[in-house]
Amino acid sequence: MKLLTAQQLAEADKVTLLKQNISSEELMERVSMLVFNKIHERLGGAPVPIKIFCGIGNNGGDGLAIARHMIQHGYQVKVYITNCSKHRSEDFLTHYDKIKNVTKDWPTLLDCKDDIPVINGGDIVIDAIFGIGLNRPIDGWMADLIKQINESKAFIVSIDMPSGLYADTAQPADSAVVRASHTFTFNNPKLSFFLPDTGVFAGSFEVIDIGLDPEFVNNTEPIATLITNQAAQAIYKPRTKFSHKGDYGHTLVMAGSKGKIGAAVLSASAAINTGSGKVTAYVPSCGNNILQTSVPEVMTLTDAGSEHFEGFDVELDNYNLCVGPGIGTGDAVVSAFAKAIKQQSAPVVIDADGINILSANKKLIKDVPESSVLTPHDGELERLLGKWSSGMERLELAKTFSSKHNLILVLKGAHTITVSGTNMYINDSGNAGMATAGSGDVLSGVISSLISQKYEPLMAAVFGVYIHGAAGDLAAQTYAHEGLKAGIISNFVGPAILQLFRNDTAQRA
Ligand SMILES: NC(=O)C1=CN([C@@H]2O[C@H](COP(=O)(O)OP(=O)(O)OC[C@H]3O[C@@H](n4cnc5c(N)ncnc54)[C@H](O)[C@@H]3O)[C@@H](O)[C@H]2O)[C@@H](O)CC1
Ligand SMILES: Nc1ncnc2c1ncn2[C@@H]1O[C@H](COP(=O)(O)OP(=O)(O)O)[C@@H](O)[C@H]1O
Ligand SMILES: [K+]
């Protein structure tokens, strides 16, 4: 699914009106009816007190139209207008007039803090104050209103956007933003919904297809692409009947050190579980027996160093390299790592300490083969790129780094974002049970296995991240979030690939 920006969506609205030859009033009627139906489906006419807060732009217009449908269906509705400006949009005014035809209880105008009504825990609040037209942080008495809405314990439904949240640009950390329980968002979820500092405001969210012009949407370059089950299906490469293991590559996993040989076990076994024709683990010699007994399918090569890497003397021509999990960052390891990446010309996967070594030795970055995939969690990312002040800035830093060095960055998190140049791919699988030691090691094995199987590195990263998350989702159905362990996630990679084609609609809110 394409994620369009606020500006692109406003443009799409205009094009849609022209192409479909409808008035903006008609589009708003369509939109409000779609939202009303969703709310009505869930409430089933329940006599719960509903307070609808409307701004003076088109988001407020949506709120007024939804309010009108609710009143006509007998709901207990009270409408408030945040009367913050004389510049009311035309559609707001149309729907302001229309609501007066269905009730004598006209909307209450709010002008200052004292006008803010009491909001009870048992109320439902519909937030239609600002949508994609927000152009500055909410301040003054309206910030007090947002605070009271958030503190009310009411169930909060935001229309299109939680009011106060920017769709796709950074905002001050202390902005007044509605903390929605649920958001009905139009055409596509907004980029901010997926970032840890701003995504919390959207709550669970649901996309409403409001019928924007498909040609405009198809021809517009999105700010990011959401990778759902359907998108992952399209990347998958089925095997051919007469293929043999030589067709599916040979992954060399250079990982582990004394006390962290498990990282090599997890990464190498994930590579074999994901279908690499052959996998060899290159480990310090203390890891040999551990590897050979825990994963018999994986071959081993041992380094001269017994507890950590001291050199690198593998001929890499026939391998795809995955390097970094648990290797440490001592001087000898740095030289071994530097030798490995210098020797390799095909794209590699670099994880964990491999990334830490690059951060501490920036001059090595030029030796990393083009289109290699780096898989940092936020701690590793900060060491590589420096501090950021917002989730949006984190993305900008990542895009700049990726473009400058021609490398792919996999920014791991609840919604892992793969960055390639200025393109971003947001993952829609996975769960909080995956916040467990070693699950990143598994991911590096999954992605390098796909590269060995001749997936383009970017697609290997995007598909690998999706399958890894989907494996976590399937595993959580048996083990619960708490019982998930990295090795279990790895064992569910195969079932997750099967599930891809059983579950066309799998999408996570
Ligand atoms: N035909 C259309 O344009 C459609 C619009 N739709 C709705 O329209 C919304 C966008 O409407 P608008 O573009 O009118 O924008 P909004 O309704 O989000 O608000 C814009 C108005 O608020 C003012 N404003 C912005 N930030 C402010 C702040 N911090 N404090 C005080 N005032 C502020 C702006 O100057 C402008 O007057 C969408 O989110 C969606 O809900 C939908 O009905 C779909 C169709
Ligand atoms: N809350 C979450 N929701 C979804 N996925 C998560 C969540 N927390 C962590 N993950 C995933 O788990 C993995 C953790 O990787 P990482 O932090 O490198 O673990 P480790 O270093 O222990 O191997 C990443 O793929 C990340 O996207
Ligand atoms: K809103």
TrEMBL record:
Binds 1 potassium ion per subunit. Residues 9-218 form the YjeF N-terminal domain. Gene3D superfamilies: 3.40.1190.20, YjeF N-terminal domain. The keyword Magnesium does not apply. One of its GO terms (molecular function) is metal ion binding. Homotetramer. NCBIfam families: yjeF_cterm, yjeF_nterm. This is Bifunctional NAD(P)H-hydrate repair enzyme. The lineage of its organism: Bacteria, Pseudomonadati, Bacteroidota, Flavobacteriia, Flavobacteriales.
